[in-house]
Specification:
The protein has 2 domains: 183 residues, Dipeptide-binding Protein, domain 1, CATH 3.90.76.10; 223 residues, Roll (Dipeptide-binding Protein, domain 3). Strand 7 and strand 8 form a beta hairpin. The chain is of the alpha+beta class. The strands form 4 sheets. Strands 1, 2, 9, 10, 11, 12, 13, 14, 15, 16 and 17 form an 11-stranded mixed sheet that branches. The chain has a 4-stranded antiparallel sheet with strand order 5-6-8-7, covered by helices on one side. The chain is globular, with a radius of gyration of 24 Å. It contains 18 helices and 19 strands.
Length: 580
C-alpha cells in the first residue's frame, strides 16, 4: 500500500557507451546522481556463504549476482547471470546457459586489475565453496545439502584439520558442460529449488578474490562495486557504478543509472521528525509509524497542492518477530513451561502501547506471517492471552506461582529503544502473570547471533525475513536434521535446536511435493505441530514504513524487502545534486 503526499579467457569486457551525469536514456530515464540511503542495521559480512542477516544481504545483492534473482515487483524468478534454463521431465536436472557478456568487477586480484569474464566454472566453484566444511558456511544445510546430488558426500569428504582445498570426492551434482553451460542435478524434484538459487549464499564469486581476500572478499558481477575493502565499523558505506555491467532495462538502456549509492547507518527511531525530513536522504528505511502520522499532518498543505516531496510506503512483509527458546536449557526443555510463557504475554497491549501500532498483530501466533493468500493461517490454533491457563501450565510444570522457577536470561541486540522497551514490557508481564523473573542482556547484533547458534543463553530476540515467497522458508528454521549432536557446534538455521520426528517427516513431504498446493498442505500440518510444541514465542509480524523522495524513480517495495537499485534513477539529477 503506497500513500502519496508532499514532503585467461577473454579479459576485457566489450566497451560500454560513455554515460555522463544528466544524460537522458530511452524513456526519459536520467543517468547520474548519488542515492543517499538510511539504514538501521549495517552489514556483518560480504562473504556470500556466511550471510544470514538482512543488512548484509541488501548490500551483497547490489555487488553480487546468482544464476537467477527475484523480481522486486512480482517476486517471480528472473535471469541473473543465466540467460535461460531448462528443467528436464524428471524435474531433477537443471541446465543453465550463461549470458555471454558478464564480467567480474575490476580489481587487483586479476591480471592488470581488469575483471575477467564469468564462466560456468565460476558458478561451480561458488557452489563448491558453499559446500566446504568451514565455520562461516552456515547456510549449507538450508540451501543445497538436502537437494543437490553429492553435496553431503562432498562436504563430508574433506579431511579433518587438513587442506580444505582437497576434498576426496567431486561434487557430482554440478557439471560444467562448457564455458557457458552448467548442469545441476537434484536427488529428487523440488519445485522451490529455483528460488533457492536466488538466495544470497549462492551468489557467484571468483576464485581469485577468495584467494586474495578470503572471507573479506567483495568482488562480484553486480551493478555496483565497492572501491576498497569495506569497513563495517563506521556509519557510512559507498557503492560505485559498475561501468562494465551487463544489464539493460526493458527499453534497452545500459544499467545502472546511478553514479553511486551512499548507505548511512542512522537510528531514525530516535531521530526527530525534522531531522528525518531535513536529512537529505532519498530513501529512509524503518520509519516509525508515529513519524509517518506527524509527517502527513504537517505536510497536508503541500499534499493538496499536488507537488509531492515524499512518498511513504507501508509494506506488510514476509517477516516475523519472535523470542526463541534454547531447548537445551533444562528449564525450557519442558513444553509446559514454553506454553505458559506463550499464554502469559499480552501481544495486543505490546503492539498498541509499546509499538504504537508499528507492527501487524498475529491472529494465529504461528511462525508464518498471514501474508500468503494460498496458505490459510486462520486454520492454525495458537496462543491467545490467557493468564489463568498460563498459571495452570506453570503449576503443572512444577512451579506453582513461580516458586522455584530459575531466573532466565533474555538476550537482545542493541537496535535503538524498540528491542529494549519490548523486552521490559514482557519482563513485567511475566512477573505480573507468572511471578517469574527474566534478566535482560543487551549485546551487539553479531554477538547475539553467535550466542544464539551456540546455545549460550535461554531466550533470544529474533526476526526472520523469508528468503523466498513460501511458508517453507519459515518452517525450515525448525528442521531437526540440521541440528548438530553437540552444543559445541553452531546450529543454524535451527538455532532453537528443536527436534520432532513428526514435524520433520511432514516437512520432508512438503519438499518432495509435486505441486505448491500439496506442499502447503504438509507445511500447514507441520506448523500446527510446531505451535503445539512452542519452541518460540511469536510477538508480531513485520511491517515496514519507508520514506522515499518523490524524485526517486523505479524503486519498488515488496513483501520480501528485495532491493534492486540497478534501475533506480532520479527525475532530475541537477535538482538532486543541488540538494546535496
Amino acid at each position: 500500500m503506497v500513500i502519496f503526499f508532499v514532503a585467461c579467457r577473454e579479459a576485457t569486457p566489450p566497451k560500454q557507451p560513455t554515460l555522463t551525469s544528466g544524460q537522458e536514456g530511452k524513456g526519459g530515464r536520467v543517468y547520474g546522481g548519488t542515492l543517499q540511503l538510511s539504514e538501521v542495521q549495517f552489514p556483518q559480512t560480504l562473504f556470500p556463504a556466511a550471510i544470514t542477516d538482512v543488512g548484509s544481504s541488501h548490500l551483497a545483492n547490489q555487488v553480487y549476482e546468482g544464476l537467477v534473482r527475484l523480481d522486486p515487483v512480482t517476486l517471480n524468478i528472473r535471469p541473473g547471470v543465466a540467460k535461460s534454463w531448462e528443467i528436464d521431465s524428471s524435474g531433477t536436472v537443471y541446465t543453465f546457459r550463461l549470458k555471454p557478456n558478464v564480467y567480474f568487477h575490476d580489481d587487483s586480484c586479476f591480471p592488470k586489475g581488469k575483471g575477467r569474464k564469468l564462466v560456468a566454472e565460476d558458478v561451480a566453484y561458488s557452489i563448491q565453496l558453499l559446500c566446504t566444511p568451514q565455520p562461516q558456511n552456515l547456510l549449507f544445510n538450508s540451501t543445497v545439502k538436502e537437494h543437490l546430488v553429492g553435496a553431503t558426500d562432498y562436504h563430508d569428504s574433506f579431511p579433518a584439520n587438513e587442506d580444505t582445498e582437497a576434498p576426496k570426492v567431486a561434487l557430482s551434482g554440478v557439471e560444467v558442460l562448457n564455458d557457458s553451460t552448467l548442469q545441476l542435478r537434484l536427488k529428487q524434484p523440488y519445485f522451490s529449488f529455483i528460488y533457492t538459487l536466488a538466495h544470497t549464499p549462492l551468489a557467484i564469486i571468483p576464485r581469485e578474490a577468495v584467494k586474495a581476500y578470503g572471507t573479506d572478499t567483495y568482488i562480484g558481477t553486480g551493478p555496483f562495486m565497492l572501491g576498497s575493502i569495506p569497513d563495517f565499523s563506521g556509519n557510512r558505506l559507498v557503492l560505485h557504478r559498475n561501468t562494465n555491467y551487463h544489464g539493460r532495462d526493458t527499453l534497452g538502456n545500459q544499467l545502472p543509472f546511478l553514479d553511486s549509492i551512499v548507505i548511512h547507518l542512522t537510528d531514525t527511531r530516535n531521530s526527530t521528525l525534522s531531522e528525518i525530513v531535513e536529512s537529505n536522504y532519498h530513501i529512509i528505511n524503518q520509519l516509525p509509524s508515529e513519524s509517518v502520522t506527524r509527517l502527513v499532518e504537517e505536510e497536508l498543505q503541500s499534499f493538496q497542492s499536488g507537488k509531492p516531496k515524499f512518498i511513504v510506503s507501508r509494506e506488510p512483509e514476509m517477516g516475523t518477530h519472535y523470542y526463541q527458546f534454547n531447548l537445551t536449557s533444562e528449564t525450557l526443555k519442558n513444553p509446559k513451561v514454553r506454553m505458559a510463557l506463550n499464554y502469559a504475554v499480552n501481544r495486543v497491549r505490546l503492539i498498541n502501547d509499546i509499538l504504537k501500532g508499528d507492527a501487524k498483530g498475529p491472529g494465529h501466533y504461528g511462525i508464518t506471517p498471514p501474508i500468503y493468500p494460498d496458505y490459510e493461517t486462520i486454520h492454525l490454533f495458537g496462543y491467545q492471552h490467557d493468564p489463568e491457563k498460563a498459571r495452570q501450565l506453570l503449576t503443572e510444570a512444577g512451579y506453582p506461582n513461580g516458586e522455584g522457577f530459575p531466573i532466565l536470561e533474555l538476550k537482545i541486540n542493541d537496535n535503538g529503544y524498540k528491542n529494549t522497551n519490548v523486552a521490559i514490557e514482557i519482563q513485567n508481564q511475566l512477573r505480573d502473570v507468572l511471578g517469574i523473573h527474566i534478566d535482560i542482556e543487551v549485546i551487539p547484533f553479531e554477538q547475539k547471533l553467535s550466542d544464539m547458534r551456540l546455545a549460550r543463553g535461554d531466550i533470544f530476540r529474533t526476526t526472520w525475513l523469508a528468503d523466498y515467497p513460501s511458508p517453507e522458508s519459515f518452517l525450515s528454521l525448525f528442521y531437526g536434521k540440521h541440528v548438530p549432536a553437540s552444543t559445541e557446534e553452531p546450529s543454524f538455521p535451527n538455532s532453537t535446536r528443536y527436534v520432532n520426528a513428526e514435524f520433520d517427516a511432514l516437512f520432508e513431504k512438503a519438499m518432495r511435493a509435486q505441486t505448491r498446493s500439496e506442499s502447503l498442505g504438509y507445511l500447514m500440518q507441520a506448523e500446527q505441530i510446531l505451535i503445539d510444541d512452542a519452541p518460540v514465542l511469536v510477538l508480531w509480524y513485520k511491517e515496514n514504513y519507508k520514506l522515499i523522495h518523490a524524485d526517486v524513480r523505479n524503486f519498488f517495495t515488496n513483501a520480501l524487502d528485495v532491493r534492486d537499485y540497478s534501475e533506480v534513477y532520479f527525475r532530475s539529477v541537477r535538482k538532486i545534486e543541488r540538494k546535496g
